[in-house]
Design a protein that fits this description.
Elements (H helix, E strand, L loop, with lengths): L1 H7 L3 E4 L8 E4 L2 H9 L18 E7 L6 E7 H15 L6 E3 L7 H12 L3 E3 L6 H8 L3 E4 L1 H10 L7 E8 L6 H10 L1 E3 L1
Parallel strand pairs: 1-2, 5-6, 5-7, 7-8, 8-9
Antiparallel strand pairs: 3-4
Helix pairs in contact: 6-7
C-alpha cells in the first residue's frame, strides 16, 4: 500500500515488470536480454522519452543502497541530465560497454548505470543462476557494481589462477573501499576500480 502511494506521485516509473496505474511507465523489454545472450540482432530501440524542458521539475523516488528505504526528492530534468553525463564520464560508459548487474536486490545506482548503458547503445546482462566467478568469465563485462563486502568475499573465493579481466571497471557503492581491497581487486580481478 505504501509503495502504491509513492508510485501514484511519480511522473515516470521505470520497471522490468508491468506497473498498473495512471502514471507513465517504461518497461525494459526481455527481448534486450535474450538478444544479448543469444547474439541475435539488436532488439528494437527503447521508446524515446517525451521531450521536456530542462527546468521542468520531476519527483524522483528511489531506494537507498545502504538502508533500502525509499528516498523522495524533486529534481529538474536538466539537473538529471547533468548527473547522467557526470556518471558517463566517471565510469567510462559508452556504446561498447557491457554492464553486468549482479545484485539480488535493486538500488538506484544499478538502475542508473543499466539505463545509461542501454541509452548509449551498450549491453546490460544479468545472470543470477551461476556463481559470480563463472558469470564474469562467460560474459566478460566492461563494468560491474559491487558492495565492498561482496568484493571482499569474491576476492577470498577466487582461485589463484583466476584470469584477470583487464578491461573491466569495478564500481563500488555503499561504503568506502579499504585501500588493501582496492589493490587486491586491481591485481587479481580488474583493470580499474
Amino acid at each position: 500500500e505504501r509503495c502504491h502511494a509513492l508510485l501514484a506521485e511519480a511522473d515516470l516509473v521505470l520497471s522490468d515488470v508491468p506497473v498498473a496505474g495512471p502514471w507513465r511507465s517504461a518497461l525494459i523489454p526481455p527481448d534486450w536480454i535474450v538478444a544479448i545472450i543469444d547474439g541475435a540482432p539488436a532488439a528494437p530501440p527503447m521508446p524515446a522519452a517525451r521531450p521536456a524542458e530542462a527546468e521542468q521539475e520531476m519527483l524522483m523516488i528511489r531506494s537507498s543502497g545502504t538502508t533500502g528505504r525509499q528516498k523522495r526528492f524533486v529534481i529538474t530534468r536538466g539537473m538529471q541530465e547533468a548527473r547522467l553525463a557526470q556518471r558517463i564520464a566517471a565510469y567510462g560508459i559508452g556504446s561498447d560497454s557491457r554492464f553486468l548487474a549482479t545484485m539480488h536486490f535493486n538500488v538506484h545506482t544499478i538502475h542508473s548505470v543499466s539505463l545509461l548503458t542501454l541509452r548509449l547503445g551498450g549491453a546490460v546482462m544479468r545472470d543470477l543462476r551461476a556463481s559470480l566467478q563463472v558469470v564474469l568469465q562467460v560474459t566478460q563485462p566492461t563494468h560491474l557494481i559491487l558492495l565492498p563486502h561482496q568484493l571482499t568475499l569474491l576476492l577470498e573465493e577466487l582461485p589463484a589462477e583466476y584470469p584477470r579481466l583487464p578491461d573491466m571497471t569495478l564500481i563500488t557503492i555503499g561504503a568506502r573501499l579499504p585501500p588493501a581491497v582496492r589493490a587486491a581487486a586491481q591485481a587479481r580481478l580488474c583493470g580499474r576500480v
